[in-house]
Design a protein that fits this description.
single chain, 268 residues, alpha+beta, Jelly Rolls, 2 domains, 8-stranded mixed sheet, 4-stranded antiparallel sheet, 9 helices, 12 strands, 38% helix, globular
Length: 268
């Protein structure tokens, strides 16, 4: 750990201790929520805990009370962490399949290649928390008024490009990934906790992205991954939909922060 990181860590620990001293009940609440939240990661190692409370997971910790509430509101649909398509209600499955079919129908990879070629990591948004977004190409299937799909995008890794380990911030949605182009070997994959999904073997992967995860493309070709955020299945779907809409309002314009290491390509 270099001097800058050590200094940052000292400041972080000092800040947490100060908050605990001046606001003990408030911090106890956040610590309990955080412990529950981080303990969902398997395997739970010291590095996971450290990254969650003092690294790039700290924003997820700040939002842990909200995320715990979302787990309660989603009952009796218990958060599985990692899902198969058949774990979701049939209407969810139908919407996901419609988006995937639309991607192939419009030759998504062929249309995005030119715009993505100049960047190590490219991000294209077509829908953001329920609101349509104009990008460099039109895909009619992505602009439909879906009931459960809230975000539609495409992430492109050039060859030999990977992310660091990180946590998504909010649990009002689940993340659906579908690798559109065919990969030739097992050098392109995603790791969520102790689970590794190789895109060559399984194109579809669904998970709770507030769990620590990391994406890899160690191959010699670009990787085009369709990603969707779907509203959490719940007995109170209208309430969950309202929370997703609230997220869009609160985090309007923050794509550049959440995806600061990506080139977010928009319509000219």
């Amino acid at each position: 750990m270099n001097a800058k990181k050590i200094l940052t860590r000292i400041v972080q620990i000092a800040l947490v201790l100060a908050l605990c001293f001046f606001f003990p009940k408030f911090m106890l609440f956040f610590v309990v929520c955080g412990i529950y939240d981080v303990s969902r990661n398997h395997p739970l190692t010291f590095s996971v805990v450290d990254r969650y409370f003092f690294g790039n997971g700290v924003f997820t910790w700040v939002l842990s009370p909200f995320n715990v509430l979302m787990d309660i509101l989603a009952l009796p649909y218990v958060n599985k962490g990692i899902y198969k398509l058949e774990d979701l209600p049939k209407p969810y499955q139908d919407e996901i399949q419609a988006v995937i079919e639309g991607a192939y129908k419009q030759d998504l990879v062929g249309q995005l290649q030119r715009a993505a070629a100049a960047h190590a990591r490219s991000m294209f948004f077509f829908k953001w928390y329920g609101a349509d977004v104009k990008t460099v190409i039109d895909v009619p299937a992505f602009q439909r008024d879906y009931k459960y799909i809230k975000t539609i995008g495409v992430s492109v890794f050039s060859k030999k490009e990977s992310t660091s380990k990180h946590f998504g911030p909010m649990r009002a949605t689940l993340r659906v990934l579908y690798n559109v182009n065919d990969m030739d070997d097992d050098s392109a994959y995603i790791v969520v906790g102790g689970t590794t999904n190789y895109w060559r073997k399984s194109k579809l992967f669904i998970f709770d992205d507030t769990l620590q995860h990391q994406s890899f493309n160690e191959s010699d070709k670009a990787r085009y991954c369709l990603f969707l955020d779907i509203a959490r299945p719940s007995m109170l779907p209208a309430l969950v939909a309202w929370v997703v809409t609230l997220n869009r309002i609160l985090f309007r314009g923050l794509n550049s922060i959440f995806y600061k290491k990506w080139k977010v390509i928009e319509a000219q």
